[in-house]
């Protein structure tokens, strides 16, 4: 008889993961893992990041700002809260594709870093942290691989989490409002964020699908499980990439694997996954600042703010400092039945 994750005792699963060749728990003490197993987090949110000083600064800025909200489970509060935030790293070229000693030191201090057994792709463009644009094919496909590993790992490590989410490291989240909204949503089928349209064939509007933009993506557990189990995507991401070969771009773009956010919507489109509930955010609540296609000003309604400069995390933390679960009200989403593209069966939206 094969045990499912739910049936494996915490210590046995911890040893299993350590001995499986995966580095993901190599810096996480057993007592931390045991505490995670005892909790029932509403949402586990992964922040993809990089083993480099500039990105370490971004992680520290997030820890010092929105990760301090009541409701965020951290080492300081013995991981008590609805939202667990974990920073997810791959081995970086600047460190010779081995994890730097700083990763172990950071994890020893915060117990919130997962080190995946994978190499990050090397950037080939001039994109900078906090800016829009792309890092180049190798880096973008590497990000998509990291995305799939992150979702698969979250499913395995946190079998009781209702939602699995992702946010960038240049993002600020008003956690009390985010959690209030999440508590008001269904537990199954949810695909929440800035919903955008994509044409698999340029100019052919008879084929269209919808995806949630990568600043912040939240999915119900059942949706993540279906994406993680989609065999064509898994095979593509497991295959080697020769970034010097132009044909490789077409091969990986066949499932939009050069865009980690578009890729998720494409997988749902290709598998014709039924019963998706698109929870559609607008730029009055989920938006970019300074640059990006969702650019808007920060207001009292902002929930997720993207493309921050380093000094702006603290400014937003100060601006929204007095918020808690007692001071916010969940957004009233209007349910609109009917398909969105070929996969959605319902839409939740609102008027700004």
TrEMBL record:
Q: Which family does it belong to?
A: Belongs to the glycosyltransferase 31 family.
Q: Which residues cross the membrane?
A: none
Q: What is its main location?
A: Golgi
MF terms from GO for this chain are: hexosyltransferase activity
Q: Which InterPro entries has this protein been placed in?
A: Glyco_trans_31
What name appears for this protein in its UniProt entry? Hexosyltransferase
GO CC terms on record?
A: Golgi membrane
Query: Which EC class is this protein assigned?
Result: transferase
Q: Where in the cell is it found?
A: Golgi apparatus membrane
Q: How does it sit in the membrane?
A: Single-pass type II membrane protein
Write the Enzyme Commission number(s) for this entry: 2.4.1.-
Which organism is the protein's source? Trypanosoma rangeli SC58
The UniProt keyword set, sorted, is: Glycosyltransferase, Golgi apparatus, Membrane, Signal-anchor, Transferase, Transmembrane, Transmembrane helix
